[in-house]
Structures are given as C-alpha cells and as structure tokens.
Prior knowledge:
The protein is globular and about 55 Å long. By secondary structure, it is an all-alpha fold. It has eleven helices and no strands. The chain has helices at residues 2-16, 22-26, 29-49, 55-70, 84-92, 97-108, 110-113, 123-143, 150-164, 172-175, 178-181. The two termini are 25 Å apart. Helix 3 packs antiparallel against helix 4.
Amino acid sequence: MVNARVWCLAELRTRLTPTFTSDKIKYMFGLIKECAEEYQQVLLKSVQSGEPFDAKDYSVNYTVEVISSTAFGLKTHSITSDTEFKKMSRRIFQLNFTRTLKFVIRDWFPFLARFLPLKFFDEQITDFFFKTVRETVAYRKQNQFSRNDFLQILMNLNEMSTKSHEGGTQKEEELGTYENNRRSPCCHPPLPPSI
Length: 195
C-alpha cells in the first residue's frame, strides 16, 4: 500500500507540475480581474448607500467567486447572490468537534490515522464538487467551449495524456469510476472519469 501511495503521489506531481508555471497562471489574470471589478462595484454601491456592511462577508464572497472562476471554470455570481456553490464552499470551513478531532488525530497521531477511515468532508460536499466538475467538463466537451482557467489546463493535460497512452486512447474502464476511485490508496481525491 505504501508503494502504491508513493507511486501515485509521484505520478500526480509529475503530471500537475507543468500546470503551475507562471505563464499558465498569468492566463487566469483576466478572470481574477473580472471578479475584482464586480467586487469593486458591489463595494461602491454599499459605501454610497451609507449603510453598514460586513467587509469580511464581502471578502469571502469575492474569494469564492475567484476560486469558482479560476479553478472550477464557473461564473457563480457569489459576490452578489447566495448560490449553492457559495453555501458548499462555506461548509468546507465549518468546524465541529468531530472534524476537529479528526484533524488532531491526523496531525498528532499519523500512525493511528493510517488505520482509521477518516473523512474530513461530508459526502454531500464532495459529491457536489465532483458533480460540478463533471458537468462543467461535459458541457465544455459537448459545446467545444474553452476558457483560460485551471479546469481547462487539467482537461488539456488529460487529453494529452490520453493521446500518449498506449494505443492512443484510454477506455473509461481503465480510468475507473468515481465510486471505485473513492477508496484509492492515494491520499489525493481522484479526478472524475470525464476529466
């Protein structure tokens, strides 16, 4: 199991390292700028209204919008409206006793954490984000839509990897399904089969 885990991490690092070059990240600047302009408009309206507002909440909304735009390839309008994406994003950071205990076990007792099936996020949250990615990828493939974001970089990487694979194509059975990969020996969450 340890060898599979090390191999999986090395393979993942080798495949993902080119996606974090400064040139690739520069492509996303336009998306971040769009989010900042929307954020600026919302702040100006709030200041001009003269009513008090929660700056932390606005900043969280801006951060969620940037992440949804650059990483997931979605324009969620989280700055101006209460979306499902924003609700799920907030749930990721909500701590309770059980989650805190899991983090303590993972950080202070890593030998014990290897033998316990610790899940840090609700299945509802992970299912939501996997479904979002699968639907976005399917939409882009169906409509031949491309965007300068991280999801597009991963799609291009997967396409190149699939083409270079033996025989030129990779069957979905070889890629596995989400359900089969959920219990992968790797410590990273598996990519949905459509990516």
